[in-house]
Design goal:
Length: 110
């Protein structure tokens, strides 16, 4: 018997997840910085929202996979994290709307 964290596959999932989490954080900070400068940041805000919300779904799905059958049992918070994370891709503009905003801004800039 050994802790699940000793398995290389789990370690790689954690490494990837935390790397993506830092990327989401930096996108959010960049959008906030531009907004703090008194400028509009629709593209940057949409990029941060899209990446962060989809990352939340990916991370919670990974947690469900790691937890196995326990990931679906209400005794563990993982199942709620998964349900809640999916709402983040819908509320305040769906992922498709965020992609449309980003594309419109990119096309108008170039």
């Amino acid at each position: 018997d050994q802790p699940i964290a000793n398995f290389q596959a789990i370690q790689w999932m954690l490494a990837d997840g935390f790397t993506e989490l830092e990327a989401a954080r930096l996108l959010t900070y960049r959008a906030a910085f531009i907004k703090d400068q008194g400028k509009k940041a629709p593209k940057e805000s949409a990029m941060a929202k899209l990446f962060s919300s989809e990352l939340a779904v990916k991370a919670s799905s990974m947690a469900v996979q790691i937890f196995g059958g326990y990931g679906f049992i209400k005794d563990y918070p993982v199942e709620k994290f998964y349900r809640d994370s999916k709402l983040a891709t819908i509320g305040e503009g769906t992922s498709e709307i965020q992609r449309w905003i980003i594309a419109q801004k990119v096309l108008s800039e170039y």
